[in-house]
Structures are given as C-alpha cells and as structure tokens.
Amino acid sequence: MLRSTENNDFRNLFGVRSFKKFLYATAGAALMLPLAAHADPLAYVVNGATQNISVIDAATNTVVETIAGVGATTSVAIDFTQDGSIAYIANFSDNTVSVLDVATSTIITTIPVGLNPSDVEFTPNDSFAYVSNRGSENVSVIETATNSVVATVGAGTGPFGVEITPDGNFAYVPNVNSSDITVIDTSTNNVVATIDVGGRPRHLAFTSDSSLAYAPSADTNKVFVIDTATNTIVRTITVGVSPRDIAITPDGNFAYVLNTRGNSVSVIDMASNTVTATISGVPIPFGLSLTPNGSSLYVSNIFSDFVTVINTASNTVTTTVAVGGEPRDIAFRPEAANEKPTAAAGVDQAIRAGDTVNLDGSASFDDNTDSAALAYSWSFASQPTGSTATITDAMTATPSFVADLAGTYDVSLVVTDEAGLNSDADSVSVSSDNLAPTAIAGEGQLVILGSNVYLDGSGSND
Length: 462
Known about the structure:
By secondary structure, the protein is mostly beta strands. Helix content is 1%, strand content 43%. The relative contact order is 0.11.
C-alpha cells in the first residue's frame, strides 16, 4: 500500500496526485446506470484502496455509478480529454496508466509507464499526455493516438504532480523530494528550467493566461507565486498547515488551497494575493476539484472515505458524499461541445403534375439527439409560379405534398436538436422539368398473316 512506500511519514503519506481543477474520481459499491448522456456535472473520484471510481452527480450529490477494475492495486490520479470521451488513470503501484472509455465505463487498454506514476495531464489539444513517475524520477510522454510512450524526460527527485500551462507550451512538474519544479518545453520535451521552491511541492495551478503559477509548499505552509515568463518567484502567501493542492476558480477571482494537516481549506483572493477565508472541518483533505461553473468545491477525504462539498459563495461545507476506500484524485468530466445536427432531406425526385410527393428526412442525425427525437421543419424554398401546394405534416420526418403544377419544387429541411441548436438547411429537388416522356405503343393485336397491321402510339405522354 501507499503507506509502506512512503515510510509512514505523514507528510509523504499522500504520494500521489489527488486533485484536478475540473475533474473528480471516487469509489463506490456497485455498477449503476450508464452515463453516456447526462445534463448535470459528473465528478469522478479515484479510490486508491478499492481500485475503482465513484461517479458523483453534482446536482444531487449522490453516487450514480461505480466503475470497477481500474487498476490492480493503487489508482491515484485521473484526467479527461477535452471532450470527456476518454480518461487516463495513473496506477501508482502497477506502473501503468489505464485508458477509460467514458461512454461505456470500460477500461480499453493499459499503458506501461515509469515507476510509481503519480499524476497525469493531457495537453490542451489532447495529442499527448504527461505522466509524472515518482519512483523512476522522470516523466512519460504518451501519444494519445497510439496510446504509447513516445518520450521520457528526466525530472527532479520524486516528481509528484504534473500541470500543463493553459497555452500548452510547458509542463511543470513539482518534485516532492528535491523541493523544486522541473519545467519542460512540450514542443521539444527538453527541460528548460528548474525552480527552487523549497518545502515539498506536490501540485500547482496556473492563471488562465498562463502568466502565473501558484505552487503550495507543504513544509513552509506557503504558496509560491511563480512568474512563468522568467520562472522566478515573485511572492509567497502564507496559508494553513501542510498545504497540498490548489484550484483556481474559472473566473480567476479565488484560489482554494488544501491544508492536509490543518484539516482546512484556505481561500486566496487573487487580486490581493491574501487569504480572506479559512474553511475548517475538512478531515485530512487530499484532492480537490471545482465544478465547471465554480459554484462548489469537492474535496476528497482520504481516511474518511467520503467527499466534502463546499459552497464557494459562502465558503461553508454543505454536505458529504460517501465513496470508496481512500478517495484520492477528483475530476469533473468535461461536457463535449454540442455540435449542430445535420439535416438530410433525401434524394431528388422526378414527378408528374398532380402526383403526391412523399419526403423523407429520417436520415438526419445529431451527436446528442436520436434522429426520431429531432425537431423537423420543412418548407418550400421555391415552387412553380402559381402553385398553391402546401406541405402536410411539415413538422415530422416524413411529410408529403401534392405537386399541383408542372415544374420544380425545391423543398428545404432544418432539424433542431434537444439543446435547441439548428442544422444548416438541406434541400431536395422535386421536378417534372426533365422527366422522360412515357411511350405507349398501344394494345397487343391478333392479325392474319399477310394483312396490314396498324399501330397507335397516340397514348404516349409527357
């Protein structure tokens, strides 16, 4: 177990990454409903002792699914791709990263990395993931297209966390044993700087413009503020006892710092860089994550086997949620951006005046709405001069109309998904203009050999 690997030193007990700024993971008891589509934020909590993930519905603060079989031993950290379809989970004792298909809640493969992977972070374009390997003192770079390690970068002693700047240009790796931060240029995977912060740094967080990094230091009870342009410390902020992790609200106004030994959370006003509140009654906080809108902070409590939920407007604890054994990292699953649906009005048709025309838009599709559940809207983009044709059942997938005059009818279809997003219009042409004439050679005849036969094609029409 992790305790033995850390020599039972309280400060080293939490030897793995436990929080992400916008993600959750915890353990639960039994597999529940599939979560391929869900309107409310979902927090994924990694449970180290039970090797599973508890999925919390943030609207009700209940565990709605438990994902089993994540790692063979201690799973410690999680991160999602930008669209929330894939998650990587660092398995500290397995020396692997599990790849989770989020839609099906299944592990689709595992990736061997270095010794004791403690944290994992995707680049903003999801092309690569960086994994800090505490035991082998390096960072594995995984190419996500192939789920394979394509580079290994040396770090300091005990690389613990890894955080990539919002612009994707650099990876910052706090080294808990050498008390410094390794800076890696992600374009070359070369180390470009080492920042001495002192006092066992584990994690850090960036401002949205990538200009500043905030790094808690467990032994100094301070947060070091780093100018990323020069990689120098520009100020320090005193917080609680043994600060471990930090998350900055989406609006950039506040930072929340976990104080592991202080059983508290310090709230930093980013404008003044001062602590303006301390939230107590958070037993041995280990990981944290903010809801996507920043309204709540979720904190894993490693030895209490639950997650504490804090209202950030009042900075008070509102509830706790029971999860699996030794909850560590927490991350919210990102919601994929809603794509507009695609309308398919069907193939062009050749008709005759007076025909009833049947239209079919059932091939229309969307990323989050079944074709049958799309809202359909048909209309004439153009029709022959003088036509009074109207579309029957124009709000269904299969309407019809009577072509009252010869000519061309251009019919347009727009579909709308469940979120109210409209498709581009697609059209179908219904025309008699180029319809081939119909030849009618007349009825068959019974004649006497040698007699004249008279044919009649006058019934042909166009």
